[in-house]
Structures are given as structure tokens and as C-alpha cells.
């Protein structure tokens, strides 16, 4: 990807092994700007950010066991509701 400063970014990641949480993000080689972070819990993407909003990073920084559980549960709930809605529309 390309940073807004014009330099190339590289992918980096941070891991909280105890929570099975992983944050993937782009770091600019030139200015160090971090962008486009995606937060995964147990391999499931629970949130992502576009551009330089820090939502996923903030969530990762403040993530504890309870928050990780809630995120995972919310994501599963969302997916099962999506399946139900898809079934109803037929
Ligand atoms: Zn940059």
C-alpha cells in the first residue's frame, strides 16, 4: 500500500497470545504512520478501520479477556442473524 506521504507501507502485526487476538496494520517506512488496522480474535476479524482512524488499534490496546469474549460473541451473533435474514428473504 501507499502512505499519504507517498512512501510504501509494510504490513506489521501485534499479538496478544493469551487472548488469541491479533492486530494487523500498515506502517509507513518513511514517516512511521500507522493505518488500515484490522483486529482478529481467534482468527475472526472483529473490526477494521479505514485510513488513519484508530478504532481497531484502540480496541486492541484496551482489549482484555472479557472484551475479547464479547467481541467474538457479537460477531457470531451477527453472522447467525445474517444467515436468518438471508433465509427469510427467499
Ligand atoms: Zn508516510
Let me know the largest β-sheet: 4 strands, antiparallel
- The average pLDDT is 88
Distinct compounds present: zinc ion
Separation of termini? 40 Å
Portion in strands: 25-35%
Strand order of the largest sheet: 1-2-3-4
Quick one: how many beta strands?
Answer: 4
Radius of gyration (Å): 16 Å
List low-confidence stretches: none
Helix content: 25-40%
Q: What is the tally of helical segments?
A: 2
* Order of secondary-structure elements: EEEEHH
Count of domain modules: 1
Give the class from helix and strand content and strand pairing: alpha+beta
| Overall form | globular
Summarize the structure.
This protein is of the alpha+beta class and 90 residues long.
Written account of the structure:
With 90 residues, the protein is α+β, with helices and mostly antiparallel strands. The protein has one domain (9-88). The chain is 36% helix and 32% strand. It contains two helices and four strands. The chain has helices at residues 55-62, 65-88; strands at residues 9-16, 21-28, 34-41, 44-48. Strands 1-2-3-4 form a four-stranded antiparallel sheet. Strand 1 (9-16) and strand 2 (21-28) form a beta hairpin. The protein starts with 8 loop residues before the first strand and ends with a helix. Zinc ion is lined by residues 3, 5, 7, 28, 30-31, 33. Residues 3, 5, 7, 28, 30-31, 33 line the site of zinc ion.
Amino acid at each position: 500500500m501507499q502512505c499519504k506521504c507517498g512512501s510504501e507501507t509494510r504490513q506489521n502485526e501485534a499479538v496478544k497470545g493469551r487472548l488469541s487476538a491479533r492486530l494487523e496494520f500498515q506502517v509507513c517506512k518513511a514517516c512511521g504512520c500507522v493505518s488500515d488496522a484490522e483486529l482478529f480474535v481467534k482468527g475472526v476479524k472483529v473490526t477494521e478501520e479505514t485510513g488513519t482512524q484508530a478504532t481497531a488499534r484502540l480496541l486492541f490496546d484496551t482489549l482484555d479477556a472479557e472484551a475479547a469474549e464479547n467481541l467474538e460473541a457479537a460477531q457470531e451473533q451477527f453472522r447467525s442473524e445474517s444467515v436468518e435474514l438471508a433465509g427469510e428473504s427467499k
